[in-house]
Automatic annotation (TrEMBL):
Residues 223-387 form the YprB ribonuclease H-like domain. InterPro entries: RNaseH-like_sf (IPR012337), RNaseH_sf (IPR036397), YprB_RNase_H-like_dom (IPR038720). This is YprB ribonuclease H-like domain-containing protein. GO terms for molecular function: nucleic acid binding. Transmembrane segments: none annotated. It comes from the Bacteria.
């Protein structure tokens, strides 16, 4: 209490001095009296030292004056207020020193002690669980930020590389070209690139469901992939990189035509038309919907004759039909990793490619486009490897090598659509060995093929086996198929009625009732 009274006396003296200075400088006694009265009220509002808790004497006094000044509506403390605050702070420090000398509790040390305890995690009382949760979230976020910063700090900065294209004079003008030859033993993942030369046109036509491909010489195929300024298509989208690949002997030649600046497409397009004229077909991935329509538009806009369209093998359609049971889509990079076992390291994100090209047009050195050329070359290698791998698996019909049952079912469905019942049945039987939902669907396919061949007994046997793989809710459709087989093919009405009663969940109530009544009438006529 003695330290508090001393602080109050010292503060009164400081306020009196500020009041006298204010009276001299302001020149208005009324204003001076009003400000002095407000400071006296602030003094009265100052709590005793013992009530300050963990706050120091200086903080109590200065904060009280600040609050009073803000209550008076001043945007900033006046000059006199500043003098008063400074004096109060000095007096409070002096009072604190006198309190130390008198042996009283030093509130500054108490505040420091409590702050250190909180920093060390020692709470004075129960902690709000929401506060604890927030602190944990902030700590986790700070740790992740630190980890990301450390990762960015240790990543090596790639050295700039020159764009690997050269200006090549052609009869149509200068074209900038990147050229590379891959040897016959080159593999893309687990698949040899040269295996694309060994495909049979008959199998390719069945796999693609494209009869026109049966007469194609695939040793002269042209693989094509473009990198563009966007994916919207139309007249505003420009293919700035046209990647081509063809076989020379058993080596694969990859040639990339690069557009150095806008307005120089015509020589590039004429060179593309010349290469197409010497090829037997196009092989692309989504080229029927995107690449070729876009190039055809550029031919027209640049007043270059559009070359005659070649037979077109779009591997996207083949991949979707074969790999659809994987449930992971048919993205090119996904197929590359999951089917061919090739994982790209440091591959450029496709969504960034247009911006990288625009930056090149604005004057960058072109080193940022080097990964784009590598990305395009990998896509062309993937086309050759994927074609060879798909045809090799389709040729094996599931009997000569172990394959994923989901892929076997995909091949079986493709062979069925192509009219190759023998190959479809072979794939279906191999897929059924995997069990589960895939095995059930494969046996349903095998039953369908047997029924078309007029073998009702075998068709029923496949469905009975499929019932053992069916999960709850899947069996009703199988019972409906068994009902039809027993009624129409095997003429076994009691069994047909048995399975009909189990097929209710997949039939409309009226249709189900009609089926039951019909079977019961037929049985009654037979005396059963």
């Amino acid at each position: 209490m003695a330290a508090g009274e001393g602080a109050r006396a010292a503060l009164r003296q400081a306020v009196a001095e500020a009041r006298s200075r204010n009276e001299v400088s302001a020149g208005s006694s009324a204003v001076a009296v009003a400000e002095a009265r407000s400071r006296d009220e602030a003094l009265a509002a100052v709590p005793a030292v013992e009530e300050a808790g963990t706050t120091t004497i200086a903080e109590v006094l200065v904060e009280a004056l600040r609050k009073r000044l803000s209550m008076d509506g001043e945007p900033e403390p006046s000059l006199d207020g500043v003098h008063a605050l400074a004096s109060a702070d000095a007096v409070a420090r002096a009072a604190g020193e006198r309190a130390d000398a008198s042996g009283l509790v030093d509130l500054r040390e108490e505040a420091r002690r409590r702050f250190a305890a909180k920093k060390a995690g020692v709470a004075d009382g129960p902690v709000d669980p929401r506060v604890a949760s927030l602190r944990q979230m902030l700590s986790f976020w700070a740790e992740r930020q630190g980890t990301a910063s450390a990762r960015r700090a240790v990543d090596p900065v790639p050295a700039p590389r020159a764009l690997p294209v050269e200006a090549r004079a052609t009869p149509f003008g200068t074209v900038h070209v990147a050229d590379q030859l891959y040897p016959p033993e080159h593999h893309h993942g687990t698949a040899p690139v040269a295996a694309a030369l060994d495909v049979e046109s008959r199998l390719v036509a069945s796999l693609a469901l494209h009869p026109e491909l049966e007469s194609v010489d695939f040793t002269r195929m042209l693989m094509l992939d473009t990198e563009t300024t966007g994916l919207a298509g139309g007249t505003g989208t420009v293919p700035f990189l046209v990647g081509l690949a063809w076989f020379e002997g058993r080596a694969l030649r990859v040639q990339q035509l690069f557009l150095r600046r806008m307005g120089e497409e015509a020589p590039m397009l004429r060179l593309l038309a010349e290469r197409m004229a010497s090829s037997s077909c196009l092989v692309t991935f989504n080229g029927k919907s995107f690449d070729w329509p876009l190039l055809r538009t550029r031919f027209v806009l640049n007043r270059v004759p559009v070359p005659p369209e070649l037979p077109h093998l779009d591997l996207l359609h083949c991949a979707r039909r074969v790999f659809k049971h994987r449930g992971e889509g048919a993205r090119l990079v996904h197929l590359e990793g999951q089917v061919l076992g090739h994982h790209r390291m440091g591959d450029v994100d496709g969504s960034l490619i247009p911006e990288l090209y625009f930056r090149f047009l604005r004057g960058t050195d072109g080193s940022e486009l080097v990964p784009v050329l590598e990305h395009n070359a990998n896509d062309l290698l993937l086309l050759a490897a994927l074609l060879g791998d798909l045809v090799r698996r389709f040729r094996a019909d599931g009997t000569t090598e172990r394959q994923d049952p989901r892929d076997l079912l995909g091949f079986a469905l493709v062979a069925e659509r192509a009219g190759d019942a023998e190959r479809a049945l072979s794939f279906a039987k191999a897929a059924a060995e995997g069990g589960g939902t895939v095995g059930m669907e494969a046996l349903v396919l095998a039953s369908r093929l047997a029924r078309r061949a007029g073998d009702g007994e075998t068709a029923v046997a496949h469905l009975q086996r499929a019932l053992t793989y069916a999960r709850p809710g899947q069996g009703a459709m199988l019972h409906l198929s068994l009902t039809k087989l027993y009624e129409h093919s095997l003429k076994d009405l009691p069994r047909a009625l048995h399975h009909a009663r189990l097929a209710a969940p997949v039939e409309l109530p009226a249709d189900h009732q009609l089926r039951l009544e019909r079977l019961e009438r037929r049985l009654s006529r037979q005396g059963v």
